Amino acid sequence: MTNDLSIVHLITQAGPIVKLVMLMLVVASIISWTFIFAKYKEFQSAFKVTNTFEKRFWSGIDLNELSRQIGSAHHSRCGMESIFHMGFQEYKRLKEQSGMEPMHVVEGARRAMQAQYTREMDVLDNHLPFLATVGSTSPYVGLFGTVWGIMSSFQALGNMKQATLALVAPGISEALVATAMGLFAAIPAVVAYNRFSNNADRLATRYETFMDDFTTVLQRQAHVSMNEKSSGS
């Protein structure tokens, strides 16, 4: 490739519309990569927290002690920890109220967990729509720049008496760079979106399974507490 057809030269010699398209694609790509690295760390942390918490929860630790540790001001809760903490705190609050049936206590705790589950999933899904948008639209944006560039090149050739490959090649090459940049922005965004969406689904399944299991544990505790109160009275 000659110096006249180098990537930098092609970009600098492109028309204003094609340059604008390229700039949009570069900005979209930079933002996408920023989100990709941030979400990668976020999902790594979410899986680590989930694995660690499940081991502690099923180790036989007292639930009051576990809630106290997680609820500490020095502990940053997230994911399954937050779901457990919100559910157990609501369970204890309702259980202390007089006249509350065990079923209502457990249902209240379940609603608290469901609300926190929704908030946690919103956090995990954050920025994923942007990656999906970049992945689906960037090739078409790049194609628009290519079509516009080729159209401008042929319009310029209309004023010349003789059109040769040497005259057509630079203009077409400039336009094709826009398509290449569109693909460069789209491919990582699509791969990352699919990967992160799969991770979010896996975590959602684990959160839902935990809520079902924890609800069962709370049901047993609620009935035991009711029986103890009945025996004491």
Written description of the protein model:
It is a single chain. By secondary structure, this protein is mainly α. It is built from seven helices and no strands. Helix 2 (16-57) packs parallel to helix 7, helix 3 (63-70) crosses helix 4 (80-95) and helix 4 packs antiparallel against helix 5. The chain is rod-shaped, with a radius of gyration of 29 Å. The mean pLDDT is 84. One of its GO terms (cellular component) is plasma membrane. Pfam families: MotA_ExbB.
Name its key features.
233 residues; mainly alpha; 7 helices; 84% helix; cell cycle; cell membrane; Tol-Pal system protein TolQ; Tol-Pal_TolQ
Secondary structure blueprint with pairings:
Blueprint: H1 7-13, H2 16-57, H3 63-70, H4 80-95, H5 102-125, H6 128-157, H7 165-232
Helix pairs in contact: 1-7, 2-6, 2-7, 3-4, 4-5, 4-7, 5-7, 6-7
Structural class: mainly alpha
What is the helical fraction, as a range of percent?
A: over 70%
Terminal CA distance:
92 Å
Rg measurement, Å = 29 Å
In the residues, how many domains can be counted? Answer: 1
Q: How many strands appear in the DSSP assignment?
A: 0
Number of helices: 7
Residue stretches low in confidence (pLDDT < 50, at least 5 long) are none
Share of residues in strands: under 5%
Q: How confident overall, as mean pLDDT?
A: 84
- Major sheet: none
- Write down the secondary-structure element order: HHHHHHH
